[in-house]
Amino acid sequence: MKPIGIFRHIAFEGPGLLAGFLDAHKIPWQLIALDEHCAVPLSASGFSGLIFMGGPMSVNDDLPWIAQELDLIRDAVEKDISVLGHCLGAQLMSKALGGIVSKNPLKEIGWGSVIVSDNETARSWFGEMQAFDAFHWHGETCTLPPGAVHLLSSAYCLNQAWSLGRHLALQCHVEMTAAMIASWCDAGALEITVSIASPGVQSAPVIQQQMIQKLPPLQAVAQRLYTRWIADFL
User: Fold this and answer.
1) Please, what's the b/e burial string for 15-25 (b: 16 or more CB within 10 A of its CB; e: otherwise)?
2) Which pTM does this prediction carry?
3) For residues 213 and 36, what is the distance between their CA atoms, to the nearest angstrom?
4) End-to-end distance of the chain based on CA atoms, in angstroms?
5) Which residues contact 48 (CB under 8 A, 6 or more apart)?
6) Which numeric CATH code is attached to 4-229?
7) Contact yes or no for 93/101 (Cβ under 8 A)
8) Vertex 88: Cα angle to 83 and 91 (nearest 5)
């Protein structure tokens, strides 16, 4: 089969748990590292699916690769090639398909509950679970593009996930590993410090202490979502 294209925008926001998941299922994947100046492919035709990871930049920033990724997402959707977005990746999907990306009312950093929407599409992704603790690190949000179905919300962000047919957009982070959480807390120490007054922001010690109990269930959710996502092209 053709590989999955995984787009990385900054070195410490890689595929995380997702890489091991794809390897375990013997699904080939190719890392397109924008942080190392890799070129954005002009067409999605060379891939079975496209996955867009997170990053500290905004979809609305004037960066040359953003417009290229937006075009690639639209090309994939037109060709019925599965797309999966995490955080910035979800915002890229929203903007590419007609949604709007803007500042979220509150910054979210750390662990926080997300509520699963009460609709059949959400149940097809999440089963009978009604809520779970997700990992968050974002200051912007997005509206749902036309035709998308709402999947998740949190106390501080209405649109935490949506799907459009086979395509899945996740504002929250389900791809986390313990090593990633440690590196994010280190790289984002200043951001945490200046934002700690926000009720949606946790300190690094709290994040890492809660990780012990909350990371394994989150990884189980991720496994379920990734299994559902790859089912469309296996």
Assistant:
1) bbbbeebbeee
2) 0.97
3) 35
4) 9
5) 1, 2, 3, 4, 27, 81, 82, 233
6) 3.40.50.880
7) no
8) 70
The tokens for 145 are: 């593009």
Q: Locate 30 and state its tokens.
A: 């190719």
- Write the DSSP assignment of 47-101 as a string of letters: -SEEEE---SS-TTS--HHHHHHHHHHHHHHHTT-EEEEETHHHHHHHHHTT--E
Q: How far apart are CA 196 and CA 202, in angstroms?
A: 7
- Name the strand (E) or helix (H) holding 107: strand 101-116
Residue range 57-113, pLDDT digits in tens: 999 999 999 999 999 999 999 999 999 999 999 999 999 999 999 999 999 999 999
Tell me the two tokens of residue 182: 């440690």
Q: Which two tokens stand for residue 72?
A: 């690639």
- Partners of 30 in the beta sheet? 5
Cβ atoms of residues 54 and 88 within 8 Å: yes
Q: Where are the domains of the chain?
A: 4-229
